[in-house]
Write a structure and sequence with these properties.
188 residues; alpha+beta; 7-stranded antiparallel beta sheet; 4-stranded antiparallel beta sheet; 2 helices; 11 strands; 22% helix; 37% strand; elongated
Length: 188
């Protein structure tokens, strides 16, 4: 019976550790800055640089399209007329974050129909790179209401910090605690 308890406890601990190590659900804190904007008619953008922060929790093995679940805007120094959303494709792996009005990875070029943006981050799981950020503004003073950074020469940056899910940590601690308790009882 003692061996059965030890085996059961050890199994729980090992599976908790394996589950934590293989977990694909991860929370990220993302901060970005984009500068070097150009426009279709060479006018200056209303805000330069564009700076923002958001958190995102997602399963990096799943594909997402215009998802608003798991993403939370912390700060953004430009107007946004709709909820923040994201697209993610694990095969590329590319993350698009933007307003939901036209879709997370889309803004209309001319004319802009809402105050919107989208940020593209390539190699999101390995070496994340801010590829470009596009801005759309509804302005009567600007004929097109559209600014963008060049994808071929981005001057933006993104800082991405993954943080393990609290449930994964709790599962790991619980598994190790059970193994320790059974081991302690066995020694007594």
């Amino acid at each position: 019976m003692k061996h059965m308890k030890l085996l059961l406890g050890a199994s729980f601990g090992v599976f908790a550790c394996i589950g934590w190590a293989n977990a694909t659900v991860v929370s990220y804190n993302v901060s970005f800055t984009a500068t070097g904007f150009s426009s279709l008619d060479s006018t200056s953008p209303p805000v330069n640089p564009v700076v923002g922060d958001f958190t995102i929790t997602m399963d990096t093995a799943q594909t997402y399209t215009d998802s608003t679940v798991g993403i939370s805007l912390i700060s953004l120094n430009i107007p946004l007329d709709s909820a923040l959303s994201f697209d993610y494709n694990p095969s590329t792996p590319t993350l698009y974050v933007g307003g939901l009005f036209d879709g997370a990875s889309t803004i209309p070029i001319t004319p802009a129909s809402s105050n919107d943006f989208y940020l593209q981050i390539t190699n999101f799981n390995n070496l994340p790179t801010a590829a470009f950020l596009q801005l759309g503004y509804v302005e009567t003073s600007h004929p097109n209401g559209f600014w963008y950074t060049q994808a071929s020469n981005p001057t933006g940056s993104a800082t991405i910090t993954p943080t393990p899910e609290p449930s994964s940590i709790a599962s790991l601690v619980a598994g190790l605690g059970v193994v320790g308790l059974i081991r302690r009882r066995r020694l007594v």
